[in-house]
Design goal:
Layout: E1 3-7, H1 16-25, E2 30-36, H2 46-59, E3 64-69, H3 73-81, E4 87-91, H4 98-110, E5 114-119, E6 137-141, H5 155-169, E7 175-179, H6 187-193, E8 197-200, H7 202-205, H8 210-218
Parallel strand pairs: 1-2, 1-8, 2-3, 3-4, 4-5, 5-6, 6-7, 7-8
Helix pairs in contact: 5-6
Length: 223
């Protein structure tokens, strides 16, 4: 079954409580927390997302799917571990070397949290293969990270497919998450390529009924 991780990037503070409870009732599987520092990407959501995460933790039992788009990964891990996320994903491009990648993998896992690695559109999928035995999830950015409401880059479908084929051939059980431009039009192709977690924000939050969109996004792709 495909899962949905709803990005709360565009949620307004005055509507937060209503939206978060509405998303839980609509059966989203995760709250997707887009953490940006204004350095790794242009936008800065760091404090806002930490506040939202803390609030969600008080009112909901749904898991938090934290996506770190930051330069200082170490500090961000410390800050966001405090809200007890289900998974923390960091960017391969923010790491200086392999030793640093493994340091963050181990730090997250040692704190009883699942670990994911994300890659930008220009990063070759093969660069992540050596880390697959040690992580739980790969987040493939299907747009350039940092902004909501972008159009999915069609070339990323092949990247997802290549990753799925590699994990199947090597008998690896790993979640493949796709983030960026996911809606009812693009979701079928993304799912058919092998993604089993879809990150969607605009498509869900702009809908009159969150539940209808989430249910359709979750539907298994045609054989």
């Amino acid at each position: 079954m495909v899962e949905v991780s709803t990005s709360i990037l565009s949620v307004k503070e005055k509507e937060a409580s209503k939206v978060f409870l509405g998303l839980e009732a609509a059966k989203t599987d995760y709250f997707h927390i887009d953490v940006m520092d204004g350095k790794f990407v242009e936008k800065n959501t760091y404090s806002e997302m930490l506040e939202y995460s803390s609030y969600i933790r008080r009112i909901s039992n749904l898991p938090l799917d934290v996506h770190l788009m930051v330069e200082d990964i170490d500090k961000a891990i410390d800050d966001y571990l405090a809200v007890e996320p289900n998974i923390i994903t960091f960017h391969l491009e923010a790491c200086k070397n392999k030793e640093e990648v493994f340091f963050y993998i181990n730090k997250i896992k040692e704190n009883n949290c699942k670990v994911g690695i994300s890659i930008k559109p220009e990063t070759n999928i093969e660069e992540i293969y050596e880390y697959l035995p040690y992580i739980h999830l790969v987040l493939v950015m299907t747009v350039e990270p940092g902004k909501g409401g972008q159009t999915l880059l069609s070339d990323m479908i092949n990247k997802i497919s290549d990753l799925k084929n590699y994990t199947d051939e090597n008998n690896m059980e790993i979640d493949i998450e796709a983030d960026g431009g996911i809606n009812l039009r693009t979701a079928p192709e993304v799912k058919s390529a092998g993604a089993n977690i879809l990150v969607a924000g605009t498509a869900i939050l702009m809908a009159r009924d969150y539940g209808v969109i989430i249910k359709e996004l979750k539907m298994n792709p045609p054989c």
